[in-house]
Every structure is written in C-alpha cells, then in structure tokens.
Amino acid sequence: MGSFFFFFFFFFVLLGIGAAGSGFPGIQLPGIPSSENRFGFFIFGDSYVDAGNNNYINTTGDFLANYPPYGQTFFLTPTGRFSDGRIIPDFLAEYANLPLIQPYLDPKNNLYLNGVNFASGGGGALAESHQGQAIGLQTQMKFFKRVKNSLTKRLGNARTQSFFSNSVFLFNFGGNDYLNPFDISYDIFKTLDAQEQFADMVIGNITIALKTFEQLAKEMWSGDADIVKPYNFKQLFQYDPFLGSQ
C-alpha cells in the first residue's frame, strides 16, 4: 500500500502529522530537480486553512481577509489568510521543506507539483453553509478532481499515482456548519432532538465526502487510504491534569 496520509479535521481540530519511517516521503517527477521535488500537500477546508481562495470569488467582506490588519505580522501585507500571519498549513509546509501551498483559484497556480490549497473561508460540509459566499466541501472535491486530471495528462497515470500515493491531504470542516444556522435563527436548536439531527446531518455529509475520497484514492493507486484519527477541542480539553478525565 502506498504511503498515503489522510488528515481529517472535524469542527475545530488539532493537527498531528505522522510519516512512514523517518521524515516525509518524497518522489522524483520528470523535469523537476530532486532538490526541488517533494510530494503533494493538498488542503481542503474553511478559514482556518484558507490561503486566499476567497480573494478570487464574488463574496462579501465578512468572507474576505484581503485587508489590514490581516497579514501584518509575517507577510506585512494581506494575503487572503484569515490570520495576522501564517496559518496551520504554512507551518506544516515549512516542516516538510515545501514552499507555501498556493490557492487553487490563484490564476498563477497551474503546476500543482507541490500540492494545492482548496480551502475557502466560510466553507462547510453542507452545501447550504454560506452558500454563494464561500466554496463548500463538494465543490472543493470537484476542484481536486480537475487537478488530478490535469496532472494525469502531464505526468501519465503511473507517475501521477506515485505522486498521490506519497501525498498528504488535510481536511478541516464542520465549524461553519454549526455556526451558520445561528446567523438565521436560534430556534433551530431549541430542542435536543433538533441539535442531534443537525449534528448527524453534518457528520453524514463529511462521512460521505470521506468515503468518496477514499474511493477516489483506490482508483488513483493500489491500497486504501490511511486515515489519521481526528482530535477536536472537546477531546483536547476533557482532560484536567489535576482531576483527570472529565
């Protein structure tokens, strides 16, 4: 089975990276010096991991980060990241000796040999979450399929399969799905049944996406995807060093 690492962020999640053996996997692509060639880092999600895709869509100021003070402490200018500096994928890319992973919608981004960032501030697992103002999970998956087809045409099936089998995929979804209804009405969560049904719907959409992606992975290379277990804030803070687990 190829060394395929699948990172899934549910709601707000802490990321941990693992790798087979020591260090990160790497492959050699045609026409790319080995010193510059690594593996792909593909990012899906919302504002926590958006590197600037919303700069290229027609949306409102609430879903944009292209004005000060965004970016002021690292880039010294707004980049579209919802941060005053770098975001989680930037640090991961640095750790893996990769350049910053560029937004898919950036017209200058057409090589994809280091990976692609598909994330969109405001995006959710549900199509209804900030619909028309952000890029949701299903659309981001469609963008990924376009990238896969583009790489297959350029590199051929064998090299593309090798590339993806060594790649890292990061997903961060759920937060906007739970927050978006409060922009409409608080009444939706009045009862426990309503809360549980809505949570099940969000989880169901993410599960479908994961299964779809896993099937796509099987088509791209031999073997199954290794899915790293997610950790969310509830899990992180349910342990008290003095009292033990809560």
Automatic annotation (TrEMBL):
Molecular function (Gene Ontology), one example = lipase activity
For this UniProt record, give its keywords in alphabetical order, as a comma-separated list.
Signal
Question: Which superkingdom?
Answer: Eukaryota
Where does the record locate the signal sequence feature?
1-20
Sorted alphabetically, which PANTHER family does this protein's record hold? Answer: GDSL ESTERASE_LIPASE 1-RELATED, GDSL-LIKE LIPASE/ACYLHYDROLASE
Q: What is this protein called?
A: GDSL lipase
Give the originating organism.
Cucurbita argyrosperma subsp. sororia
